[in-house]
Amino acid sequence: MVPSPLRGEGQGGGDNLLDTKLINLAKDLRRNQTKAETLLWTVLRSKQLKGYKFRRQQPIGKYIVDFVCFEKNIIIEVDGGQHAVDKEKDLNRDNWLRAEGFKVVRFWNNDVLQNTEGVVAVIRDNLMNHPPLTPPLKGGE
Predict the structure, then answer these.
(1) Three-class secondary structure assignment of 69-135
(2) 19: which residues sit within 8 A by CB, 6+ positions away?
(3) Predicted model pTM
(4) Is domain 15-134 annotated with CATH 3.40.960.10?
């Protein structure tokens, strides 16, 4: 399980300054969502999608993810044009999140804005057909 101060788990000697900066950045991102994120949040909030709870702009490790369902370990990312430029950064981030037991599902802003029902259908399918992943055992246990 990924330690996160917002999940009620201690950091155990982590860098509190980094944690505080990440939490403050997440709060700022929640206040300044993109139009696509705002639209998708109207569907994901308050357990509206099949009763699953999502969090938005959630710190996980050294990253902040757009939306996450911890019950199913699914992360939803809504990407703008900047993500087309720096694909390697997203790949490294996704690989780290997968190693921590998460499935990452990405959508373009335009898809969310122009085909909201289709995006929601893909998310619903992932929730219903995706067992929660467990992170690999560390230390060969």
Answers:
(1) ECCCCEEEEEECCHHHHCHHHHHHHHHHHHHCCCEEEEEEHHHHHHCHHHHHHHHHHHHHHCCCCCC
(2) 5, 11, 59
(3) 0.75
(4) yes
Domain ranges across the chain: 15-134
Which pLDDT does position 108 carry in this prediction? 95
pLDDT category of residue 18 using cuts at 50, 70 and 90: low
Contact 77, 60 (CB under 8 A): no
Under the banding of pLDDT at 50, 70 and 90, the label for residue 133 is low
pLDDT at res. 82 = 62
CB 73 within 8 A of CB 55: no
Token representation of residue 1: 């399980």
